[in-house]
Amino acid sequence: MRMFARILALLLLFTALSASASLLSQQGVPARYMQTTEDADIWAQVGNQVVSVGNVRAGQILAVVPTAADYYEFNFGFATGFIDKGHLGPVQGKQRVEDSLGDLHKPLSNQNLITWKDTPIYDAPAVGSAPFGTLANNLRYPIISKLKDRLNQTWFQIRIGNRLAWVSSLDAQEDNGIPVLTYHHILRDEENTRFRHTSTTTSVRAFSNQMTWLRDQGYTTLSMYQLEGYLRNKVNLPARAVAITFDDGLKSVNRYAYPILKQYGFHATAFIISSRIKRHPQKWAPKSLQFMSISELKQIQDVFDVQSHTHFLHRVDAERHPILLSRSYHNILFDFAHSRRALAQFNPHVLYLSYPFGGYNAKAVQAANDAGFHLAVTTVRGKVKPGDN
């Protein structure tokens, strides 16, 4: 069994995810600074959920936007935070937000910190400084910059509610990226006589154990839409996050992977070779490579998001090189567009591509972009990080 940790090949076109759009920018209501009158819990959108993300200590100043509900909104990472109106009042005396160096308006650094526990936030880069509040466990949060203090300790500068704050590297770590786990074929040990030594075949037992481990460790599975948002600095995501993908569209995915993923409430992406979709289900035959039918693909859509693995380009030439590498730009573009149209019956938003055998070149990247794909994945080992190309 072998899993490829994938990285994304950059395509220039990007459409912001509607789920990550900030309510602050939608309303057009100017933010105003207010002060917490007591310790206050805060919430924000992380992934697809609004969750508790920490607290702000009494006496802290935040820029908030009033709403018709019982809470104010404020900027939290790449999304909107929420705080109960009852915890805020006018700013007392002559207190104001300090930003002598203009750091509030600096661009973000394409780096995040990760919290593995409830993490203290400070007003200044020193342990003895006033506490600002706490970031909850299991968060990714964007960093503006880093500095070292006189004891050579690293501090992460962050923004919360148009306020500068600091987190010690002793309490959090830098984000090293999100893994994308790639699978192809799943078989039970006793029926796997032909593909036992094939790197792209995983045993049912191994796959189940891996998913159990992810569940027990508290991991959230991501869609490609969320992964794109992460790459483009558009969404907040949990620290324990992973994307799961299956290439080709084999029948074993429906038979074995689908029920295991569904049992754990996980989601995955199925990159489908659209020309190999069967009109009707085939009788199960573990000694051959069988592809899913139309009905089998529709059956798994509560767990799997269908995306493209090309139409006719999943082949190799006489030298065992991906045939895509020898095709013209127009041939590749035609295939990519054909695949998107063929898969539209399963998903009207086919925006992501998996290059066959991980092979691509400048022509393929341009064709993918022109065909309307946002991102494409290959098989280079590594993790996805903000700003990757």
Description:
There is one protein chain. The protein is α+β, with helices and mostly antiparallel strands. The protein has two domains: 4-17 and 177-377, Glycoside hydrolase/deacetylase (TIM Barrel), CATH 3.20.20.370; 31-174, no CATH class. The protein is built from seven helices and 26 strands. It has a nine-stranded antiparallel beta sheet with strand order 9-3-6-7-8-4-5-12-11, with no helix packed on it. Strands 1, 18, 21, 22, 23 and 24 form a six-stranded mixed beta sheet that branches. Strands 2-26-25 form a three-stranded mixed beta sheet, covered by helices on one side. Strand 21 (220-222), helix 3 (224-231) and strand 22 form a beta-alpha-beta unit. Helix 2 packs parallel to helix 4. The protein is elongated and about 75 Å long. Mean pLDDT is 91; it is low at 1-26.
